[in-house]
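REVIEWER CHECKLIST
Item 1: Sequence provided? yes
Item 2: Single chain? yes
Item 3: Sequence as submitted:
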Amino acid sequence: MADYSLSTLVARLKTALIFLKDRERIPAYLCVIAGMVSVRGLPPIQEELTMMVGFGTFFILLFGTTVRRGAWLGFLFGLGHFTLSFSWLVTSIHTHGGFPLPLALLALLIFSAVISLYSALFGALLPRIAPRAEILPLAAPALWVVTEWLRVRLFTGFAWNLTGYGWNGRDYLVQVADLGGIYLLSWLMLFPAAILALLWIHHKEIKRVALGCGSILVVLGLANLYGYIRLDANTESANWAPPLKVALIQGNIPQEKKWDPRFKREGFSRYIDLSRSLSEPVDLVVWPETAVAFFLQGSPKAMEEISQLSQHLGAPLLTGGPMADKEQDGSWLFYNSAILLDESGNQDRRYNKHHLVPFGEYIPFREYMPDSITKVTEGTSDFTPGPGPVPLAWGQGAIGMLICYEVIFPHEVRQLATTGVRWLINITNDAWFGEAAKPQHLAMARMRTIENRLPLVRVANTGISAAFDQYGQELGRIEANQKGVLTVALPRGHGQSLFRRMGHIWIWFWLYLCGAAWIVGIWQTGMFRSLK
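Item 4: Structure as written out by the authors:
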């Protein structure tokens, strides 16, 4: 029987205080705090210096430690960083998924712990490749970028809130993304952090402090200069081709009503009415992901209304909605789709989402899972992935379709850009995310325009809906949690950038820097000389 006497509780409290006061555990606490503090550099707060200080503290705590302890400190830093960074998942799992709050919090911690394995890998390797403080600026930024690249690619990937998005508010500096993508921006965030760590370790050496500060100013100054030149070139060539008139329709349908059969007609009618309120001719009308919350294939009346709307507006309608295909054996395949519709009622121009959300749109390893395990989102059947990043054909030019979080994967959007699309369209439903996720998702979509030099239209059910030109300059927006209509003049992008042509090469550059740092570290510690 458990002992809950006062003396026992006091004894346990003293044991806990002794454990917490152990000086050897202070770096562990600081790593968790540094990880949490660094999140303030990301949207919507975007305090770049705070992020640099957080990562700089992390680098200092790793300096001179063992591989095993470095892995532990890296894991703790990641646990603090990713738990706070992904906190919006609690809304998805608890509020809209129906799980009790304790289970939702536990799921967030487990997921963050899994992602923290990448920062644990960083913590284990950094002391090995940077045994001396002077090597930190060469090793730490490149190694962290490598772990981010792995996080984006492995096990379906999760590219949310990469470090480089901390520069989202710096219009000049972010232009370098057309050279090295979001990974180059991550490096630009972490290079100053590594310099700060070096200066802390050698703070008494005035010359080294001056050189370090000068290095930060030069690197960031060159990045801003490049951005200034690129934006200046954009001003000179702004009218090289006539723009498209695109209408963004944001219905602001609450998630709890969106899939309610009693509200199906009202939600659909809201999008019809908002579209009919357009007072000027447009070339394209865009509704968000699953704006049509039912199967159009089985709704001839809804198709007739859309055909009449397209005829009235003189423009096609691009909408998200579930679609189903019947197989020869009689089974059905379900898709999260984007359908381009006009007055003809033809449903053949369709894009099926290919990068599905685990547990949100399908259950991984479904054949091994019990039937009682279902998706967090509506519906019991899993969605089937589409064929991949493929363009959606249209007479005005191929559309690069991206549904929901497909837009956060740099390599997949780059692959889509290489097919010759003229612009990107991202439809999403952020209603089932927490509020912090909305500006973060928008920032990630914006970065894809700069990386590939393609304009982008983003339409969200509850916001934020917005459009950007190929330099990431905002053309207009509808704020979150509002219904509204926005018409923008969307330029035709040329889709030419170094990142689009050679983006896959960059990982070798970051690995080269890590290898160079390791070799320099071996040389400086005298291992080469001892072999002679």
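Item 5: Key structural point noted by reviewer: The two ends are 67 Å apart (CA to CA).
Item 6: Recommendation: ____
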